[in-house]
């Protein structure tokens, strides 16, 4: 029986190749867009050592009737003030420590672990306002001094998140998340506290030790990667 010759492959027309390429490129773009929608990128704010003062202590340090002078907004309704104080510990001092406003119910000093070695104290990692059982320090201003019995903490790294964004991403106030940094010294920060409020602007706050370890600066971004259980 006579056998037929094997069919030779035919050349694919150029317009078909171009159509296939366009389809593949479009599919890749759709996948990238879908992946990006699943990534929450948060701008970084590096918090250097600072002090929150009660109204009573503002007057004790700067004089009767004194009002803080805002110089830069940090979050809506919160600001860095022009005023600075000196923080004195058993071993050393920290000078030119920025005061943040507005005044609060209790005075609070937020420092880094490196700062704590300078002062000679051992503050715990705490959320803002959780001051029970924390060490104290002496604050010195231009018009007086205050001897704090407690109030010095290492601030718990945290994300300020607007309420509408939290709802969209499924977060609630005081959730704990993990975040991944970018760059050559990338790290994963575990147990990052989420604070939710309609007044907040999205930003993660870390201290100078954490920022230096990860090679981060103000305006860089991190990615929220998972809820902690």
Helix content: 10-25%
Order of helices and strands: HEEHEEEEHEEEEEHEEEHE
What is the distance, rounded to the nearest whole angstrom, between the alpha carbons of the first and last residues? 74 Å
| Count of the domains | 2
Residue-averaged pLDDT: 91
Give the number of helices. Answer: 5
How would you sum up this structure, described in words?
The structure is a single chain. The chain has 229 residues and is α/β, with parallel strands linked by helices. It folds into two domains: 46-155, no CATH class; 157-227, Barwin-like endoglucanases (Beta Barrel). It contains five helices and 15 strands. It has helices at 14-37, 55-62, 113-119, 163-169, 208-214; strands spanning 40-47, 50-52, 70-75, 78-88, 93-101, 108-111, 125-126, 138-141, 144-147, 152-155, 158-162, 176-180, 188-197, 203-207, 221-227. The strands form two sheets. Strands 2, 3, 4, 5, 6, 7, 8, 9 and 10 form a nine-stranded mixed beta sheet that branches. Strands 1-14-11-13-12-15 form a six-stranded mixed β-barrel. It is elongated and about 90 Å long. Pathway: Polyol metabolism; 1,2-propanediol degradation. InterPro entries: PTAC. Pfam families: PTAC.
Short description:
This protein has 229 residues and is an alpha/beta fold. It has helices at 14-37, 55-62, 113-119, 163-169, 208-214; strands spanning 40-47, 50-52, 70-75, 78-88, 93-101, 108-111, 125-126, 138-141, 144-147, 152-155, 158-162, 176-180, 188-197, 203-207, 221-227. It has five helices and 15 strands.
Topology at a glance:
Layout: H1 14-37, E1 40-47, E2 50-52, H2 55-62, E3 70-75, E4 78-88, E5 93-101, E6 108-111, H3 113-119, E7 125-126, E8 138-141, E9 144-147, E10 152-155, E11 158-162, H4 163-169, E12 176-180, E13 188-197, E14 203-207, H5 208-214, E15 221-227
Parallel strand pairs: 1-14, 2-5, 6-10, 7-10, 11-13
Antiparallel strand pairs: 1-15, 2-6, 3-4, 4-5, 4-8, 8-9, 11-14, 12-13, 12-15
């Amino acid at each position: 029986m006579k056998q037929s010759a094997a069919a030779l492959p035919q050349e694919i027309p150029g317009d078909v190749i171009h159509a296939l390429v366009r389809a593949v490129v479009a599919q890749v773009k759709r996948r990238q867009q879908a992946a990006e929608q699943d990534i929450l990128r948060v701008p970084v704010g590096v918090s250097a050592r600072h002090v929150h003062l009660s109204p009573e202590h503002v007057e004790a340090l700067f004089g009767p009737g004194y009002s803080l002078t805002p110089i830069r907004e940090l979050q809506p309704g919160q600001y860095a003030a022009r005023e600075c104080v000196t923080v004195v510990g058993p071993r050393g001092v920290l000078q030119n420590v920025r005061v943040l406003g507005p005044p609060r119910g209790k005075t609070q000093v937020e420092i880094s672990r490196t700062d704590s070695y300078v002062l000679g104290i051992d503050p715990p990692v705490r959320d803002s306002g959780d001051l029970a059982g924390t060490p104290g320090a002496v604050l010195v201003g231009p018009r007086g001094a205050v001897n704090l019995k407690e109030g010095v903490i290492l601030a718990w790294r945290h994300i300020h998140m607007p309420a509408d964004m939290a709802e969209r991403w499924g977060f609630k106030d005081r959730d704990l998340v993990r975040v991944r940094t970018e760059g050559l010294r990338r790290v994963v920060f575990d147990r990052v506290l989420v604070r939710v409020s309609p007044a907040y602007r999205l930003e993660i706050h870390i201290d100078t030790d954490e920022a230096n370890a990860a090679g981060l600066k103000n305006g860089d971004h991190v990615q929220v990667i998972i809820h902690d259980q």
